[in-house]
Amino acid sequence: MKISVTGLGKAGLPLAFVIADSGFEVIGIDIDEKRVELINNKKNPIPEEPGLLELIKKYSGNKFIATTDGINGIKNTQFHIVIVPLFIDKNNKPDFSILRSAFETVGKGLKKGDVVVLETTVPVGTTNGLVRNILEKESNLKAGEDFYLAYSPERIMTGYSISRYKEFPKIIGGINKISGEKALEVYNKFCSKVSLVSNEKTAEMIKISEGVYRDVNIALANELFKQCDYFGIDFEEMREGAKHPFCNILKAGIGVGGHCIPVYPWFLINEFESLNKRDFIELSKTGRKINDKMIDFWAEKIIEKAKKLGKPINEIKICIKGLSYRKGVKETAYTRSIPLIRKLESLGVDVYAYDELYSKEEIEKMNLKYSNPEECDLVFDCFNSLSL
Ligand SMILES: NC(=O)c1ccc[n+]([C@@H]2O[C@H](COP(=O)([O-])OP(=O)(O)OC[C@H]3O[C@@H](n4cnc5c(N)ncnc54)[C@H](O)[C@@H]3O)[C@@H](O)[C@H]2O)c1
User: Fold this and answer.
1) What tens digit of pLDDT does each residue of 170-212 get?
2) Cα(20)–Cα(42) distance, integer angstroms
3) Which residue of 2, 25, 130, 274 lies most exposed, with the fewest beta carbons within 10 A?
């Protein structure tokens, strides 16, 4: 059996090489020609992922081949994993265009007996709805009978992806019993702790729930942080003091960024708002609001501190350090640092940006002013906001 992985990004590329490392032949499919060429030339497009370069050097060109020819890639493999991003638009509604185009390609190359597994985090009902419909339409085959369809959410974290795939528990749910079992049989060969859940819908909900859990717990930490700040109490001391088997308060910060946590609560919020069941999503919605509004709190704190420097506020150079959504990951998707900069600019402050992972040119391309932190009067580190 040969395996295809569609989407060679931060999640898909490490997975493709973990599979190759377990002995399978893998075809990696991506629409980005430069990325495909880079990987086929044994280069690593995700340097922040430990262990990935070694796997690329070992398997690229033999057990692993990357291609932009998706249809042929699917035709020449029997087990297909899709792991492309799903973004939300300005109104927080999911934009399915990437997912749709990826599955149109998979559907065009699909054969009788093939197994398809979606790993992207999606709203409940997507696998057995949108995905099934596209695959059946493009292939003229019947899901659950002619080909098998399952959902298995990735649970990686950039920087730890390879160990996560190898060691972290993973779940699978099929659109019917045989789909789940077929997917499980193969995943068991490259993941160590895989278990089957009742169906694909349960697996979709498990992954979204994990995101909502993190989001509301971070919101709680952020709210407690503001309260501690008001009382003049050291938040970290409070957090440590409150740590015991029944209480573990997370770290506070400037909000939540990245492709995942700030996105997933909206899958549920949209669903239940459209059904007019607003009381089903009050906590998830409040969590989102608290986390997003943390930049207002920090903008006020930064200006308060700047005013104490003894210069007119518009002459003070402020540096916002850390642009990516998480330290050590070169990714600005849904980062809160850039909205913080925009907020400060709107308040008439002279703001500069710095991130050790981005060059001056890359920062300026984001329409931001670059400066070394040493050349600024006040530095705010987004990865360590408590140091302000
Ligand atoms: N990066 C993480 O730490 C992380 C963590 C948890 C979950 N995830 C999830 O993984 C999923 C993928 O995210 P990512 O971080 O890998 O994204 P990414 O932006 O790093 O990569 C996505 C890749 O998909 C490719 N692509 C886009 N459209 C395509 C198409 N039609 N056919 C083939 N390839 C296509 C892009 O060229 C790109 O290489 C997301 O849904 C996210 O929820 C990511």
Assistant:
1) 999 999 999 999 999 999 999 989 999 999 999 999 999 999 9
2) 14
3) 274
Q: Is 269 within the bounds of a domain?
A: no
- For residue 35 and ligand 1, the question of a CB distance below 6 A is answered with yes
Could you tell me how far CA 157 lies from the centroid of its own chain?
8
Closest protein CA for atom 31 of ligand 1: 102
Residue at which a domain ends, from 198, 232, 249: 198
Taking CA atoms, 22 is separated from 17, 156, 276, in Å, by 9, 18, 48
Ligand 1 centroid distance, CA of 257 (Å): 15
> Residues 32, 66: contact at Cβ < 8 Å?
no
Residues belonging to the chain: 388
Closest CA to 270 of 15, 78, 96: 96
Question: Is the CB of residue 182 less than 8 Å from the CB of residue 152?
Answer: no
Does the beta carbon of 156 sit less than 6 angstroms from any atom of ligand 1?
yes
Q: Which region holds residue 125: left if phi is over 0, alpha if psi is between -120 and 50, else beta? A: left
Q: With a cut of 90, say whether residue 44 has pLDDT above it.
A: yes
User: What is residue 55's predicted lDDT score, i.e. its pLDDT?
Assistant: 97
Ligand 1 midpoint to CA 266 (Å) = 18
Substitution site in 84, 86, 256 for ligand 1 pocket (most atoms within 8 Å of beta carbon): 84
Atom 40 in ligand 1: residue holding the nearest Cα: 85
Domain count, the chain: 2
**Contact between 63 and 20 (Cβ < 8 Å):** yes
- Residue 176, domain member (yes or no): yes
Mutate to test the pocket of ligand 1, among 10, 160, 215 (most ligand atoms within 8 A of CB): 10
Two structure tokens written together for 284: 């998830």
